[in-house]
TrEMBL record:
Name of the protein described by the UniProt record: Carbon monoxide dehydrogenase
Family, per entry: Belongs to the Ni-containing carbon monoxide dehydrogenase family.
4Fe-4S is among the record's keywords: yes
Binding site for [Ni-4Fe-4S] cluster: 265, 301, 339, 446, 476, 517
EC annotation from Swiss-Prot or TrEMBL: 1.2.7.4
Record note on quaternary structure: Homodimer.
Amino acid sequence: MSANDKINELTISQPTKEMLSIAKEKGIETTWDRLEKQEPHCGFGQLGICCRNCTMGPCRIDPFGGEPRKGVCGATADTIVARNFARMVAAGTAAHSDHGRGVALTLLEGAEGKAPYPIKDKEKLKSVATKLGIEIEGKSDEEIAKEIAKKALEDFSRQNEDTLNFLKAYAPKKRFELWKSLGVLPRNIDREVVDIMHRTSIGVDNDPLSLIVQSIKTSLADGWGGSLLATELQDILFGTPQPVKGFADLGVLDEKKVNIIVHGHEPILSEKIVEAAESEEMQKLAKEVGAEGINVCGMCCTGNELLVRHGVPVAGNFLQQELAIITGAVEAMVVDVQCIMPSLPDIAKCYHTKIISTSKQAKFPGAVHIEFNEENADEIAKEIVKTAIENFKNRKKSVHIPNEKKECIVGFSVEAILSALGGSLDALIDAIKSGKIKGAVGIVGCNNPKVKHNYAHVELTKELIKNDILVVQTGCAAIACAEAGLLSLDAIELAGDGLKEVCKALNVPPVLHLGSCVDCSRILVLLGALAEALGVDISDLPVAGAAPEWMSEKAVAIGTYFVASGVFTVLGVVPPILGSKEVVKIATQDAEKLVGGKFAVETDPVKAAKLIIKHIEEKREKLGI
Ligand code: CUV
Ligand code: SF4
């Protein structure tokens, strides 16, 4: 295979191909090269049957039923796989929810006047307060915000057997009762994560079902707790997304301007960077160094946060982060937490690009560390932007920015969807009942170099909209489809006749971008509202979830809370559970009897679409529509 043929196999994105061939030419190692060096991957790890939870091991189980059948402590493959799965859910929940905690603390500090975070969306403030049962009459916005923040923080600290304030306020009744009867209502977010770490340590919980039940409980603490409160409180602080035009792909970088990429997950920092870059002082400084201005672009989920709220251009998704640096046009890549490749400082060494780490929790050898804190947010953001501007003069001549970017319409919060529908879900429900829209599918999650970049996201999405299924998206999936032009009004033409008619009438794309990974909670809220409006449970709805190119532990937490919320969820990358027949059976069959949702694994996006369409048709039939 020639080098170009090989690159064509790695991605469907033209700008990505372009940058990959430059990387090749210059001998710069990327994630794809490193994947190759890792292959073949260890079979024990892939099947989930290796355990490192104590020093009597590490232990491995023979996948073919021979010896060893047990770890030194006596743990079986079923125990080991279930324990490993639970730990992935715990890690994913921890990541989303720790982010949520940060937002709650920022809301509190802002309301107390200790940090420069005023309340942007007063309407949302009031609606969240009302949902949580907080009296708003006669109280100032700051008082209300404080009470909301405290309710959120209580969800991290409650020591009794009661459940989360946010889950109680947002989950549909039928689901709530089901979870209650199953004993999976989370007590507090931190506690469920700790519970998993405890019970998966040597010699505690050895029953795969019990371990999966705790995984479900923990994932609910993520979806209806940590992630949901992150979304809601971020909307209060930074505004609830409304439809807005944006651009996506590496072509959003601008050769004539100071390019700053904000990468990671938390808008608490990136919102301030955008503000600082827009200030007269910084604009002036940029002109002084000979740039035409400052171009702040996003990447991954912090990119999604800025894109859906302000239309800030997004330079790419997970697998494009290294390539952005290779354009030679990035003065600074500012990172906070999550999904930031440790390789970035190494690649940046070949260019003038400064990797600026900002979080106490995430330091990168080789990066410049400018630590962020909420109290001094404005000053620190300015310092970061200034550092980028000053670096403009160090840019080398050999800049190569691919000239492709795609227009997209994004920002479909639940509030925005409702207002596009004229204030209630009726129009959507009518369209579903009449069959113009057959159902809805949430496509979410990462990129993974084991999957052709963006291919599975885009193919699955195209298949579904062609079959009159509305698609809602978050995360890197949404960026993939933005780059493929599927988040534009032009994409309406790719939809089946029924969906086409509805999208045209509402003037919305057939694929709706809801936001970042924590905004998967918006999908839950939407599903809950649909179920209540129809008087059924979420598990009765003609809907499904998919993570076609997932890689992160966070995606395992998301997939699990989708399933636990009653949603059929298709994974495009095989999770490390095949070493246990028992766990596979629970995840792909028994879960349905318990919670109404289950997992399926299908690596081919066209076949995945078929599975989903069949599922949706079955659900429609059961509903009698
Ligand atoms: Ni949080 S978790 S690669 S950036 S979606 Fe993107 Fe989204 Fe996965 Fe990470
Ligand atoms: Fe081996 Fe058991 Fe220790 Fe795991 S917990 S490493 S299976 S002895």
